[in-house]
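Quick note —
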Amino acid sequence: MTDAANGPSFPGDGREPVLAAGAIYLRPAERRDIPLFVRWFTDRRTTRTLMLASPLSDAMEERWFERILDAHGKDVWHYVICLRSDDRPVGGIDLREVDLRNGSASLGIAIGDPDDTGQGYGTAALRALIGFGFGELRLERIQLDVYDFNERAR
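Predicted structure written out below.
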């Protein structure tokens, strides 16, 4: 559970997350998440299926975070995947290149810690985000670019 200084806590506080499915809910990224993102995206086990060619630094993530803040709700919707049971972040998911006029978007997803893969968190996060994309944003197409060796994504 997170405390008041670190952000909202959902389990047991009576609120229902807006974007949720199964064991997870989605929340916007916060500045406090940056060190976690850097840890996740400097681990080859996580990045081998992503389009990252080199490790990320705190400064690079800070710059990315500022761009996400400016773009969120326009052509990007980025969320942190958190467990309902204890609010622990387990990954990130986003809709990007969102074109509301043509009803299309691309999707990105990563489970950060390799120990959290294979638990169904990614599948649940996809359900929540795709429901949002097709339902709330009224998209008609959502695509995912995937490497042929990435069986889970395929």
